[in-house]
Amino acid sequence: MSTNKKNMNVPEKGKLIAKDHRQDYKSVDPNFGPSGEPWSEQVPDIAKSDNHDKYPGGYIIEPPTEDSLKIYDERSANYPIQQKVLDEKYAQLPPEGQGAYHAKSLVEMEDYYTHQRNEFLGYQCAEKFKISKNISPFLNMSLNNIGDPFVNGYFTVNAKQAERGVLDFFASIWHAQWPSLPKPEREASVDDATYLKSPEYKKYKESYWGYVLSMGSTEGNLYAVLSARDYLSGFSLVSDDSEDVSLCLPDIMGEKSTNKYTPVAFYSEAAHYSLAKAVHAMQVKTFAQIANEKIIEQELKKQTEVAYKETENWDCPLGGEWPESVPVDEYGCVKIDELVKLVKFFAEKGYAPFICFNYGTTFKGAYDDIPEACKKLNPIFEANNLVNREVQYFDMDGNPKTDHRRGYWIHVDGALGASLMPFVEMAVENKQLERNDLAPCFDFRNEEVMSLVTSGHKWPDAPAPTGVYMTKNKYLITPVATPDYLGSADTTFAGSRSGLSAMILWNLIAKEGIPGMVDRAKKTMELCSYTYDKFNELQKKLGEFDIWLKRAPHGGTSFIFRKPINDIMFKYSLPIEVEKTKEETRTRKQTYVHLFIFWDRDKEMIDSLINDLGSKDAFDKDSDVYIEIPVSRKKRIQKTKRPVKLLKRSAHKGFR
Ligand SMILES: Cc1ncc(COP(=O)(O)O)c(C=O)c1O
Question: Which helix (DSSP H) or strand (DSSP E) does residue 38 occupy?
Answer without folding.
Answer: strand 37-38
